[in-house]
Amino acid sequence: MNFLDFIGEGQTLLLILILLYLSECLIWVKRESVAFVSASGRRWRLAVPPSWMGNANGGILFLNPLPPAGRVFLSHLSPVSISPSGICAFNIQTLSSEARSPYQSGEFLPFSKIKGSGADGAYLVLNNEKFTKCATSKQAHALAKLIGAMAKASTSKREGMARTWVVKQFAVDDARALLKESESLIKPIQQMGVVLFLFLFVFIPSLAFVFGLSSLSIPVAAVMVALAVEIAIMFYRAHKKLYPAESSERLESVVKMILCPPVSMRAADILTRNLLAQYSPIVLASVLPGSGEQQFVRSVILDLKHPLKHEVSEEAAQQTISWTVNEQLNVCLDQVKKGRYLKPEELLAPTQREENSISYCPRCRCQFVVSEVECPDCPGVALVDF
Ligand SMILES: [Zn+2]
Fold it and tell me: Are 359 and 384 within 8 A, CB to CB?
């Protein structure tokens, strides 16, 4: 083989491997989810998919392709509101996109009418019908379990159960403990990913450049597959501990890793992605070190305090929606009082008053020169005079 042939063949192979690898760096982030990412692992920040890379339901986020993987955490808002009386397929809370999935139908079911609950993939199934779609099958399973238990429980016990469900979403200490506990499982997988990355994209190209590719292809492929299998085994064990119920995701990922070794370099992403997903986005902002997302935290709490107007009109549904949002707000404000997230005065009126402004929006804190109207950006939220 002459030099030019080698360059052509080697480059094509390398290009395929790089493309396969890069495709694993793309993740889908729904509009009701937030992603926290970090380049160094020390400072975390919110990452929002660019608007041109998605549709009304979500967008594609391109993760930092440099290893190690596992520097992404998502948080998914609940697709339902739960009160002691029933469940409603609607969550009044919105994130900065203010989007709601079409599955937030506002349908209400009292616990007395719930005969069975389950999950079909990401769908929450009540009385053998798809009730709403969750962000992940893990979320669907957790909700199905809770609703099943609440439907069987006595009326007096339901209030405590619904309250516990809300409190758990804000359990900062639990989230921190889980993060710490998972470190020992995830770190070795991240390191193996780095080893495979260096082997594939640094070691092989330099070796091929010196000795030519044809003499190396078999030993190189053998080492590559061996490393991928090793990562897949480590991944399987860690995933089983962290996501015991997610057996189909586990199996699917392992098969992909063994058949396509570049996939295994991003194994840690699958482990971290939904690890803290059941917690409120502000809990993630609080436990991930160095995340200076004060403004985001404030906007989440102010959104709970001054929610946007909605179209759900049935009274029982409305009551359930308000019950959930009030519970969330109470837990949040209680934690703020104890010195968590931000200083209580940061939730009050803006301290810097702009020239001529006489009112402000309590939700987005924009200032206005008019009063007694709604904020143009926050439907249903009335302006407040200074
Ligand atoms: Zn506003």
Answer: yes
Q: What pLDDT score was predicted for residue 119?
A: 94
pTM to 2 decimal places: 0.92
Kindly list the protein residues that place their beta carbon closer than 5 angstroms to ligand 1, a single-atom ion.
361, 363-364, 375, 377-378
* Residue 248, token pair as written in the block: 């189909």
The low-confidence residues of the chain, meaning pLDDT below 50, are: 1, 3-4
Residue 11, classed as helix, strand or coil, is helix
Strands (E), 305-366: 359-360
Tell me, in angstroms, the distance from the centre of ligand 1 to residue 370's CA. Answer: 13
**pLDDT on residue 205:** 84
State phi, psi for 88 to the nearest 5 degrees.
-125, 135
* Ligand 1: centre distance to CA 165 (Å): 29
Count Cα atoms within 13 angstroms, Cβ side, for 378. 28
Residue pair 234/189 in contact by the 8 Å Cβ criterion: yes
CA of 60 to the centre of ligand 1 (A): 27
Q: Give 58 Cα–ligand 1 centroid separation in angstroms.
A: 23
- Tell me the per-residue pLDDT of 234-255, one tens digit each, with 9 for 90 and over: 999 999 999 998 899 999 999 9
Q: How far is the CA of 211 from the centre of ligand 1 (A)?
A: 65
